[in-house]
Design goal:
The chain is an all-alpha fold. The chain contains eight helices and no strands. Helix 3 crosses helix 5. The longest helix has about 35 residues. It is globular, with a radius of gyration of 18 Å. It starts with a helix and ends with a helix.
Length: about 170
């Protein structure tokens, strides 16, 4: 299994854990029985470590998310931030920028339109606070800003089409 697939599997486990007070082992046991899921070693270790260190991860996220409280964040974004912060600080997964890029991709796949830019901003702030200059992170930030602009333009186009349809229906 590719590392990105393992990360996605770990994301699903930690995300599910955010809805119920069960251990990662219990969640995996249910997933194996109910969904015939096989969890690879990296996903298991990552999910377990994240769940074991939630207080530190949540403090770190709070410190680097400007004016956002944890209970106001989407569960998708919060889960991705927890995974990525743990990987950046505790797992040798390669360049930090690659971890940030993978986190942004997970947010694009599973989150709302704003989650990926939020995830990117918090991770970028964290990395910069550590004194790391990560060119990949800067590129990811630029891509996130561009994608956010595209999403906003799409939202405006949809809103305009709905208004036009409503006006036509009223006539």
């Amino acid at each position: 299994m590719k590392r990105s697939e393992s990360r996605e599997q770990a994301f699903m486990l930690v995300f599910e854990r955010s809805f119920k007070e069960e251990s990662v082992d219990e969640i995996i046991e249910e997933a194996v029985i109910g969904r015939n899921l096989e969890v690879d070693d990296y996903a298991y270790r990552l999910a377990s470590d994240v769940c074991d260190h939630l207080p530190w991860l949540d403090e770190t996220i709070t410190a680097h998310s400007k004016k956002w409280k944890l209970n106001r964040m989407s569960r998708v974004a919060l889960t991705i931030l927890r995974l990525s912060l743990w990987e950046i600080d505790n797992v040798d997964t390669g360049p930090v920028g690659a971890s940030i890029t993978e986190a942004v991709e997970l947010a694009k796949k599973y989150g709302s339109a704003d989650d990926f830019s939020f995830v990117n901003g918090v991770l970028g702030a964290y990395v910069r606070a550590k004194g790391q200059d990560v060119p990949e992170a800067r590129r990811a930030e630029e891509e996130a800003a561009a994608s956010a602009g595209e999403a906003k333009a799409e939202d405006e186009a949809v809103r305009a089409a709905k208004e036009a349809a409503a006006e036509t229906a009223a006539e």
